[in-house]
Write a structure and sequence with these properties.
The chain is an alpha/beta fold. The chain contains eight helices and ten strands. A six-stranded mixed sheet has the order 2-7-1-8-9-10, covered by helices on one side.
């Protein structure tokens, strides 16, 4: 593990090791969610996996620890093609990536099984989906089988680039950024926020990666794709990656700064890490909500 990755992991494990025991001391039977949010390529997926391994090692068989990415809930390739046709004039909803390109019924079903396990005591596991971004020359497709997790779940880690973004409620007509294709994206974002980070039934810790220049995403995402190609032998070209990232920039410009400054991803507490282009931490901040 490189020094910068270890630095990030040290900050995040220290944060979780403080607040998770306090959560268990409350005696609640509801799962604790850990939301990890940051721009594409910032290291949130890598960090989330390391945190998952850390918690598995720490709690062993005493607790059921689960991990998923919001990306795993993307629509299947066939359903994405149908969405492309439905919103054929909206370039932001062509292909996977933005709010509106996920299977929300599947996500809702998984959450229901996690939260309402006591209503189905004979169900011992639930299967999480898995998305393969290398399929269809980098366009991606959801796999038929995924990870089985043990019920009841004690800690559920969920990572994603727009977790915590809040849709615009007022002043839409006066917001120059919220026009054209972004209107549809903003409308669809309500489903995600109401289901996850603004859901009063979900108690959560938040980990946020921010950066000194959001354009770092271009280089980070290129690095990711090159790593994917080296592993599986297929993926997007550099030009496709740049065009892919272009679709995200309107969302970053509209939501990202307000999201970072709110420090409210977690309903219990939020850790915000500022990282530079080399993913080295230059600032840390923790806000306790409850």
């Amino acid at each position: 593990m490189c020094d910068k990755s270890k630095e990030i992991l040290d900050y995040t494990t220290e944060f979780l090791d403080k607040y998770i025991p306090e959560w268990f001391e409350t005696g609640t039977t509801y799962p604790l969610f850990i939301f990890v949010s940051g721009p594409q390529g910032s290291g949130k997926s890598f960090t989330s996996i390391q945190l998952y391994n850390h918690l598995r090692q720490k709690y062993g068989d005493e607790k059921s620890i689960s991990f998923a990415s919001i990306d795993d809930f993307y629509l299947t390739h066939d359903d994405q093609l149908k969405l492309n046709e439905q919103f054929k004039n909206n370039r932001l909803l062509q292909g996977r990536g933005l709010p509106g390109t996920h299977d929300m019924e599947l996500l809702q079903d998984i959450l229901n099984k996690i939260f309402n396990h006591d209503q189905h005591p004979n169900q011992e596991t639930v299967t999480l989906p898995k998305y393969d971004k290398s399929q269809f020359n980098g366009l991606g497709d959801r796999c038929m089988t995924g990870q089985k997790i043990k019920l009841p779940v004690d800690i559920f880690i969920l990572e994603g680039w727009f977790l915590g973004f809040n849709p615009i409620l007022q002043g839409i007509e006066n917001n120059d950024l919220l026009a054209g294709d972004m209107v549809d994206v903003n409308a669809k974002l309500f489903m995600y926020s109401d289901l996850l980070w603004r859901n009063p039934e979900i108690k959560s810790l938040g980990i946020v990666f921010t950066t000194d220049d959001i354009k770092n995403v271009y280089e980070w995402r290129l690095q990711q794709e090159h790593e994917l190609i080296s592993k599986v032998g297929k993926g997007m070209t550099n030009e496709q990656v740049r065009a892919f990232v272009d679709k995200y920039m309107p969302s970053y410009r509209l939501y990202f700064n307000d999201f970072v400054h709110s420090e409210s991803l977690g309903s219990i507490a939020t850790l915000t890490l500022g990282i530079d282009s080399n993913r080295k931490v230059f600032s840390t901040k923790t806000r306790c909500i409850e």
